[in-house]
# Entry
Amino acid sequence: MKNIILTGFMGSGKTEVGKRLAQRLGYAFLDTDKLIEEKTGKSISEIFREEGESSFRELETEVIKNLSGITGYIISTGGGIVIREENILSLKNIGLVIWLKASPETIINRISSGTHRPLLNVDNPLEQIKKLLSIREQFYSRADVSIDTDGLEVDEIVKVILCLETL
# Structure
């Protein structure tokens, strides 16, 4: 049973798609951000505020390394996990990596009600999304498969994944 790893920018649907996909396939669901919160006893926002982004990225790397050898999981990753080469390689070693792509406009619409996004606590979140996407796109593009989620509902994205020949 191969693992499926969902990556992409915040608001791309990784968690909701991951949970639904896990139900459909009978897999377990893991969220790397939740694993970090459980490990530290802190929210992601608290980690960013108290320890900084680099400390959070170290925790992500540690969590990914600890997933080596597991099977039968749908794994939702944090949006910036791919910016470290070792993380990309580790993710590819544990399963099929799928990039859930979304435009900046789709992302801002999906996350506009949330205040728990530390990287978007800025005056112009849409510009920040565009900036971060332009930096991260080269890393996301290393996924095994990419799916454009603009205009798609969660169940539609799940159907696209279920139709992949590589599963």
